[in-house]
# Entry
Amino acid sequence: MQHPRCERTSAWAALAGHYQAHGKDFKLVEAFARDATRFDAFCIDAPEVFADLSKNLLDVATRTFLLDLARECGIEARRDAMLAGAAINTTEGRAVLHTALRAPRGQGLFSDEVHAVLDAMLGFAETMRDTARSGIAHVVNIGIGGSDLGAQMVVPALQAFAHPELTFHFVSNVDGHDIAPLLKTLDPARTLFIVASKTFTTQETMANALAAKAWFLSTPTPLRADRPPRGSRKAAETHSVGSGGRMKQRDIAKHFVATTTNVEAAAEFGITTTFGFWDWVGGRYSLWSAIGLPIAIAIGADRFRELLDGAHAMDRHFAQAPAAKNLPLQLGLLDVWYRNFHGFTSRSVAPYHQGLKRLPAYLQQLEMESNGKCVDLAGAPLAYATSPVVWGEPGTNGQHAYFQMLHQGTDVIPVEFILVQHPTHELAQQHTMLLANGLAQAQALMLGKTSEEALAERAPTASSVIDGQVLARHRSFPGNRPSTTLLLERLTPRALGALIAMYEHRVFTSGALWGINSFDQWGVELGKALCSALLPRLANGNTEGLDASTAGLLRRLRAQ
Ligand code: F6P
# Structure
């Protein structure tokens, strides 16, 4: 069934009217004063994630109109089509089935294939985790974008569950400053390289993999006292070279593995251990597939399965929970309300957990590569805005950097706080401080401070000669700035799996409302093509036919 574009629905017109009549002047403090049940009414208890949406600029009527919008845009039908394996990535003619990767054995689409690879990959992960036998101390993931950001985010997030003798490194940038210093610190005999690339053609990944291979074959493994004696069972199983020797071509097969859909290209590289996946797994949705191998090596097979289980629980919630209490759906609707009616251009993510320090970067790809589009599914230009800018830093660091702008800047930027109730460390007092900071920031954004309140306060660090009224204006806060707070009980693999899946489905929801293809990424192609054309020009200096700016820069870069 054909669904109308969002701006052609009657709900869109109703939302526009509602925004003018109530939305633009909506006052959070007054809304709480009017309605004692507001907190409960706008909280959602989803699997592993409790969400407080009550500090957002919406009321019951807004929610009703947004749900009308979801209905008119056919969100449920679109969601069901995705889950059923329809080729909703129309420009590439592909299904979008990352949910199948976390369905229990026998329950999802392609279950046999999915679980065969999962079993093999988890078996391999356990072999590497047996460090006495494997001899591995360092795992280097070489990949970029979706073949990097998921594992790079999850491994430190689950540090408390990670193998204590393994160190993980993530190399992504084609800039040699990424891999070169790392290689200087490694012993080839104790290092496992994972070349992670869906296509096995990505320029950055191939360049880094070749650099790693060249280093591997040319670097002697240092003499070490902690090595098992030569000829012992462990030594024989672990290494084909003795202490102080060089690795051989055949050792590539032991120290390099690939996670890819392009097994032939990996074999050509010399890699014989390959864990595959399928074209229906998008790069930025792939951490649940073989691309999650570094995670599996870090936390082990059982914990990796818990990560999948958490995501699956959120999948069930997204598929079955009633619309008013469906967390990804409600967040996606809120995103549309803010982007298209309030005109907010960005959203800040503030995880109050140091382990989630890479979550904002992960979400940037997930959301902006998915929904940064300007045509609809039929290729027609859009008359409305799509993806906001997503950015952030872990709390409390962000407070001492850009929160000034969130509180007193001229733009309103909704903030998403992520708080974790129980830490995995012993510093209870510091954890209480962390939680208090997160709560206080959300409170401050909402409550603000009037000039009168500021005038009544002492300000010991203020100038003694400044006029009191002027100072009070500098020290007042507009308030009424929206935020969402997401609470996890603990940052376990299961909770993290649920949290990530929540974000995936939220991005699906807003993308489906906007009527765009959230699963292609043609926007990265032009730069890739132009880079290939510029590579020889940088070598030979030919600037013929180039625009004047690029030509001028190229000449300067080539100057001695
Ligand atoms: O940046 C474009 C992109 O295609 C991403 O979507 C993808 O995650 C990344 O490049 C890496 O691609 P691959 O896994 O094929 O190396």
About this structure: The radius of gyration is 26 Å. Residues 144-147, 197-199, 202, 205, 283-284, 369, 521, 524 surround 6-O-phosphono-beta-D-fructofuranose (CB under 6 Å).
